[in-house]
Structures are given as structure tokens and as C-alpha cells.
Amino acid sequence: MIEIINGNCLQECAELEPNSFDSVVTDPPYELGFMGKDWDRSGVAYDPATWAAFLRVSKPGAHLLAFGGSRTYHRIACAIEDAGWELRDCILWLYGSGFPKGKSVLKPAYEPAILARKPLEGTVTKNVQRYGTGAINVDGCRVDAKGRPLIISHADKSLNTYGDGLNGSRAAGTIDVGRWPANVILDEEAGQQLDAQSGNVGAAAPVKGTEPSAASTGNVKGKRDRVPGVFHGDAGGASRFFYCAKASKKDRGEGNTHPTVKPLALMQYLCRLVTPPGGLVLDPFCGSGTTGAACVAEGFDFVGFELDPQYVEIAERRIGDG
Q: Does the keyword Transferase apply (predicted)?
């Protein structure tokens, strides 16, 4: 199901059933009066009632991802928290395409995305079993390692890795499934700039656990500070430690005149991070429909609200073509 509704998000949310959505992924007004647009200074993103409306229609444990401006995201975050959401993290999207808006201001190079969650019913496990929500999709968002073999070192009994009488190995697996997702995301240009500064860095050498180390006592730490480890067998620039969202010509093509378009790859990644397979995503500030197009690409259902009929038309065309 893919649906875009031309209307006020609060009025439209009031018509929806409670506990319906698996996630909310949105790019709300930053309340900066961007390009003189009235919709960017209405105060709707600062109002806890706005986020309370989205909370009501979200399932327990559903995650919310909401972008904000570097100067105003704190007020959006406070409104989200005051509405009853639990603040979980803040993801930074770093990009290299920004330009300073004046001679006495810094060049913008990041946008924060507030990560919050509707309170659970019981434990995470019980909530996931009942609603399918409550956890993030770590494995679906690992930083690609292209299936490289891991560098593995096995522990020996004599190391007493876990203390006297508790021997074992910390080696695990044979195929690299990717690095753990971070709360920093790069665009292509930011990744290139980072690699230019870091240079080409080789893979870490495996640790056998027999290397000289500081003396330690007790069974908790063991007889060695350094324990066997598992390493990614790769080399390259520092950007390989982060997800890099590649830009697409289609993001700005096909008559898309919306002033704050996010890259499709970025929104696909974020939707995948917080939405269970086949889940239903809400974007109450739909704009030109990038979140909807991302949901189509990822196999999610989608409902979006947008006030401006012009942007609704663009969103319908983009999602239909996607």
C-alpha cells in the first residue's frame, strides 16, 4: 500500500486508527523560514501536540526518525520528548555540498536526525513478538564489507581468556557481514574528503593474545590484557567505517522543485534501519516523496501527508516512476 494524502497532517492523523504504524520517518519544517517559505515558520515542529499525534498512531516500540536544522533541532527534540517519545540517539548526516549563507557564518556540513521510540509494552523481546517493533535493524544496515574473509585468531587454553577454569575463544565466524552501523552517515563528497585527509590505511593485524601486556590480577580480567580478536581484512580510507549514501540524478530530476530534497539512498537506509520487513511507514511531512520512494524500493508500505498540491503531484510522479 502506497498512499499520499493532500492535507494537514494533524487533521489527517486524527482519522487514523491508533497503534497502526511501524515507524515514522520524516523531514519536518526546521522553523527557519527557509527561502521565505511560510511552511517553514509555522511552529508545527516545535509543538508537542504534533508529535503526540504521531505517537498515537504508532505501535508500541515504533521508532521515529525526524531531521532537524543545526540551530533548531534541539527544540524539535524537546517537543518530541515532551510528547511522550523516548529519545534514543541523534544521527548525523554529513555532506560536502553545503555553502555558507553569509560572510560571518560557517559552511553547513551536517544535518541531525533525531532517533526516538514509542515506549515499549514490557521488554524489547515481548514487544517485538507482539508488534514486530522495538528494535533497530542492525544487520540490514551494516556498513558493507563485501563478504571479505575475516582475520581470525583463536584463543589457546593457556591464555585463560575468561579467567582460570573458564577457557575459550573469542573468534567467531568466517565471513565478514559488515561493520556495525554508526550514528554518522556520509554522502559521497564527505566520504571523499575524509579519505583524502585520512589516506589509505591498512587492515589491523590479528591479536593472538600472547603479546606482552600489562600485568593484571584476578580472574575477571585474566592473565593478559590483550585477548584474541576478529578483524575486518580490508584497507582503504576512513570513510569505510561509515555508511555512505550515494547521490542519484533522479533525486533532483523530473521537475522536482522542492527546496529540501534528501538523497534517495539516505532515506532507504534510514527506513530500513527503523522499520521491520514489510512494515508500514508514516511520513507526515511528505514533501516531494523521497521517503515514499525509499519505501517502494525497500518493500515497505507507506502513508504520507503533504499540504502543498504541487509537491503532492511531484511525489506521486516520483513514487510511481520508482
A: yes
Give bridge partners of residue 236 from the DSSP assignment. Answer: 201
pLDDT at 46: 93
- DSSP summary character for residue 305: E
For the residues 166-180, what does the mean pLDDT come to?
55
DSSP 82-150: HTTPEEEEEEEEE-S----SSTTSPPP-EEEEEEEEPPPSSSHHHHHHHHS-SS--SGGGPBP-TTPBE
4's enclosing H/E stretch is strand 2-6
User: What's the structural domain count of the chain?
Assistant: 1
**Residue 35, domain member (yes or no):** yes
Q: Which domain holds residue 314?
A: 2-142+242-321
pLDDT band at 32 (very low <50, low <70, confident <90, very high): confident
Q: Which three cell numbers stand for residue 46?
A: 516545535
Backbone phi, then psi, for 42, in 5-degree steps? Answer: -85, -20
